[in-house]
Amino acid sequence: MNNFQGKTVVITGAGSGIGRALALQFGEAGARLALNDWNEATLRETIALVEQRGGIAWGHSFDVSQKEAVYRFAEDVAARFGQVDVVINNAGITLEQCMIERTGYPDFEKVIGINMWGVIYGSKAFLPYLKARPQAVLANVSSIFGVIGYPNQGPYVTAKFAVRGFTETLRIELAKSPVAVVCIHPGGIRTNIARNIQSDHPKRVEKFAQVFEKMAITSAEAAAAQILNGIRKKKKRIVIGPDARKIDWMARLFPSAYERWIFRKYDVEKFSI
Ligand SMILES: NC(=O)c1ccc[n+]([C@@H]2O[C@H](COP(=O)([O-])OP(=O)(O)OC[C@H]3O[C@@H](n4cnc5c(N)ncnc54)[C@H](O)[C@@H]3O)[C@@H](O)[C@H]2O)c1
Which of 4, 41, 165, 205 is the S-S candidate for 29 at Cβ 3.0 to 4.6 Å? Predict the structure, then answer.
């Protein structure tokens, strides 16, 4: 799809980071936006920013891990815009750094509920509408942590590998349909994802956010631009940032030995809560 003019584009998690940057760039490209975030205030801010730039945006705040809410949203979007051309399942969270052994089930369930089930619901709920179009795109946001294992991020990595498996399978199943299915693997992107961690320990979150922000070398705007570009060029896989591209190659060339290089000096226990 190389022209977004007049297309209906759905983006979840559009109140911040990559989702907001995507909304602004699709808006500037002439798309009509159906946006979601569970944070009503930041969702409204994104809608106002799109409108200030002359774009068209509407949104609804709900939690993407709630299946009925996602299906209701899909019906509302179709009723309001009459068509759905692009869906980007982007909403996601992360947790404080913690080893799998020490991570409780509620944290696992929360991350998998949003980062994995949110993507599955968002894909299946919108699929009938996408298939009704002559050309459509379903893009799911995984991570470079959907390519390699990463210590102290067990629930996140588990969910992002699941998103990759789900999306690649769906792509094969839909090969003869008008729907192009894209899996997105960002590396470190400078967003609020670390600061948005829900925790009873704000000082720990602040410390982690500072470390994360030093490592995150790609801006949300550059990430969004690569996603629009990748969709225009019909890419099946969009790997974002030099860090992610390097890790992706390393993992494919050395599927088990990469661990030795990346985590040679990493003290897993020291960085776990
Ligand atoms: N920032 C990175 O380095 C990075 C790297 C790889 C992948 N990603 C992925 O990119 C996506 C966007 O992350 P970001 O970095 O822009 O983070 P962000 O925190 O800046 O934005 C995420 C948005 O999703 C919303 N959200 C979270 N849970 C939700 C839910 N249950 N329902 C609805 N909205 C919800 C948040 O309110 C927030 O506005 C996520 O899936 C994330 O895992 C980010």
Answer: 4
